[in-house]
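Next comes this protein.

***
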Amino acid sequence: MLDAFHSLSEFSRTHCIAICAFLVPANLLATVLTLGLTALRRPTVQIQRAVGLASCFALVMVLHVLTWLAVGIVMPPTYILFWLASTCLLINIWAIAYPASLNRILDVLLVWFKRRQPELHQPE
C-alpha cells in the first residue's frame, strides 16, 4: 500500500508541470461551468454533475500539492495552487449547499458588471 502511494507521489512530483498545466485550467473552467449553471438556474442534477467534475479536479490538485508538502517543498506556487484548489472546492460546495445565496451574489455581480461596461450592452 505504501509502495503504491510512494510511486504515485513520485509520479506527481516528476510530472508536475504537465499535471499543473492540465489541472489549473480544468479547475477554473469546471468551476466557471458550475457558476454558469447556477446563475442560469439549471436543474440541480446538472449542477451536481458539474460540481462532481470540478470537485474531482480540485481534490486531485490538493493531493498533488500535498505530495510536495510531504517532501518539504514550501514555495509560493505550492500555496497558490493550494489556495486555487481550495477556493474552487468551496465555490462548488456552496453551489450545492446554498444555491439561492450564490444566485443572489451572482445577480449582484452581473448588475455591477453591466453598469461598469455600458458599451458592451448598447445596440448597434
Observations:
- Helices lie at 2-14, 16-39, 44-70, 76-97, 99-116.
